[in-house]
Design brief:
Blueprint: H1 2-76, H2 81-97, H3 101-143, H4 147-156, H5 160-169, H6 173-192, H7 196-219, H8 223-232, H9 236-252, H10 256-276, E1 279-284, E2 299-303, E3 309-310, E4 317-320, E5 324-333, E6 339-344, E7 347-352, E8 359-360, E9 381-389, E10 393-400, E11 406-413
Antiparallel strand pairs: 1-2, 1-11, 3-4, 4-10, 5-9, 5-11, 6-7, 6-10, 7-8
Helix pairs in contact: 1-3
């Protein structure tokens, strides 16, 4: 086997050497082709420049001949001096505009030297590249084994007879196959067995579970505790007695229908009471009036129907939304009895006059003063009456009397 590997390595080395030689040959051919093409291009460019220069020289010579002929013709002809000077100056400008032969020769020389320099540089680059390739090839060749090393290695190897004797002592293909199958079967059997880590984890888990069970058993009641608890429980007679008492109490309770009827009756009563308790009351405490007589209502003390009685702080009127019959009451307290008017939508409907003392309300009752109390004026000017208001009626009170008074007004929807 080692001999065959060495032979294969030798073959691979020869193939690598052939490949390197082919690559070097290909690279040199390419460089040679590139150099030939570059020389061809340089020759073509130089030939083109020479052709152009020759063409320019021929053209200049032709033009000079033409000028000579024209000069000769002019010499033969009789012309005046001014015409001759004009002609001479015009053709002198044309001649000066042409390129001289020295300039053409100088340009050609400079271009040839430039091309020669480029060719020199290109040759130097090619030499460097070829040297680099040769160095790489030498390095690759040095890395390969020489013939003496190969012969030494071949002498150290076993011959064919020894190899055949060794192969006879080896197992056959069928034996190797049987051994492989046995190894696979044993590996599968080992996979079914638990590993050491799995066994340790299982033992730890079982130990923890047993400890938890032991703790739970310690928390459980023993037989003595259970017997004590059972002795404390009530017996059948006690349970029957308690059930009898419960039945008696249930018999004394009202039925569900009676309870429903009572609840409905109470709801009707509550609705009627709520309807009777639709009241509101406002206070006047500053003693100051607006616009001369209008009383501003500054504080709202009660309002059970804010949707019906609309009040704004310091406004001189109160709005009642719903129409119908209302009970109105008001009172004013001052040192002297004032004169008060009740206005509905800006029109007076009743007046309490500061006299002995009439309430002008289309033959309504009287207010009589019986004298001054020792504690001061404790009766004031008060009134309770009933009025039928339209929808969205605006209630206001006009006050005429001494300043510093206080008062109130209240409404109740009937």
């Amino acid at each position: 086997e080692r001999l065959s590997r060495i032979q294969q390595n030798c073959e691979f080395m020869q193939e690598d050497i052939y490949k390197v030689k082919d690559s070097v040959k290909t690279l040199s051919d390419e460089k040679r082709n590139e150099q030939d093409e570059t020389n061809r291009m340089i020759k073509n460019s130089v030939g083109g420049l020479k052709t152009e220069l020759v063409h320019e020289q021929a053209q200049l010579a032709t033009e000079l001949d033409h000028f000579k002929k024209e000069l000769e013709d002019l010499a033969i002809r009789t012309v005046d001096k001014s015409s001759w000077h004009d002609f001479q100056s015009r053709y002198r400008v044309d001649i000066d505009a042409k390129v001289s032969l020295n300039e053409v020769q100088t340009a050609l020389t400079s271009s040839q030297s430039d091309i020669a320099q480029r060719l020199t540089d290109y040759r130097e680059d090619m030499k460097l590249l070829v040297n680099k390739v040769e160095d790489n090839l030498l390095n690759l060749i040095n890395k390969k084994s020489n013939i003496s090393d190969l012969n030494t290695l071949l002498l150290e190897k076993a011959d064919v007879g020894v190899l055949r004797d060794g192969l006879k002592s080896k197992a056959t293909v069928s034996e190797v196959e049987d051994i492989r199958m046995n190894i696979e079967r044993i590996s599968k059997e080992f996979e079914t067995f638990a590993r050491e880590n799995d066994l340790e984890n299982h033992v730890n888990y079982t130990r923890g579970a047993l400890e938890d069970v032991g703790k739970d058993m310690l928390l459980k009641a023993n037989i003595k505790d259970v017997c004590t608890l059972l002795d404390m429980k009530s017996n059948i007679d006690d349970v029957n007695k308690a059930l009898t008492e419960v039945h008696k109490e249930l018999d004394q309770k009202s039925a569900a229908e009676e309870l429903t009827q009572s609840v409905n009756d109470q709801a009707l009563i509550n609705e009627a009471l709520c309807a009777e308790n639709c009241v509101a009351r406002w206070l006047w405490k500053s003693g100051e009036v607006k616009s001369g007589y209008a009383v501003p209502w500054e504080v709202q003390s009660v309002n059970t129907c804010p949707d019906n009685f609309l009040w704004e702080k310091d406004k001189t009127s109160v709005l009642t939304v719903a129409p119908g019959l209302y009970e109105i009451y008001f009172g004013f307290f001052a040192k002297k009895k004032p004169t008060v008017q009740l206005l509905v939508n800006g029109e007076p409907v009743l007046s309490a006059v500061n006299s002995a003392s009439y309430v002008i309300h289309h033959s309504s009752g009287k207010l009589k003063n019986v004298g001054r109390h020792s504690a001061g004026n404790i009766t004031g000017l008060t009134l309770i009456d009933f009025i039928a208001l339209p929808a969205r009626a605006r209630i206001a009170i006009s006050y005429s009397g001494e300043g510093g008074a206080e008062g109130f007004v209240g409404l109740r929807k009937l």
